[in-house]
Automatic annotation (TrEMBL):
Reaction equation(s) it catalyzes: a 2'-deoxyribonucleoside 5'-diphosphate + ATP = a 2'-deoxyribonucleoside 5'-triphosphate + ADP
Annotated gene: ndk
Domain Nucleoside diphosphate kinase-like: 1-132
Residue numbers binding ATP: K9, F57, R85, T91, R102, N112
GO molecular function: nucleoside diphosphate kinase activity
Statement: the UniProt record of this protein carries the keyword Ribonucleoprotein: no
Record key words, sorted: ATP-binding, Kinase, Nucleotide metabolism, Nucleotide-binding, Transferase
Cofactor: Mg(2+)
Organism phylogeny: Bacteria, Bacillati, Bacillota, Bacilli, Lactobacillales
Protein name from the UniProt record: Nucleoside diphosphate kinase
Originating species: Candidatus Enterococcus moelleringii
Active site: H115
Family: Belongs to the NDK family.
Amino acid sequence: MEQTLVIIKPDGVRRKLVGRIIQRFEEKNLTIKEMYQGVMTDKIAQEHYAHLKEKPFFPNLVAYMTSGPVVFLLLEGADAIPLVRQMLGATNVLQAVPGTIRGDFACSTTENLVHASDSPENAAIEIQRFFG
């Protein structure tokens, strides 16, 4: 079984989509091993998105991720990382196909509802960061 981190971002929480997003993961037989709601601190947001630090949108990304509550999910299942990434759809919502979470619910690329680990190595780091 593989584990992955999913963060339902502030727009997903604000728009009351948490239950609908979680339902999709459960329908794909992914198990919620741990889950909590919290507000990401500026320090943690900067650490989590450090790989984007040189991008011009970095300050706005940090501000967005710290703008309200998020939901942290530790999901487990067979091939959880690629499965979840496929379920999310493209980061650019204009390229996210209908049937994916972003394709069905996201309204903009800057507020695209969800984050998910993109590799086993990053999943291990991210799970440690948010679940200890």
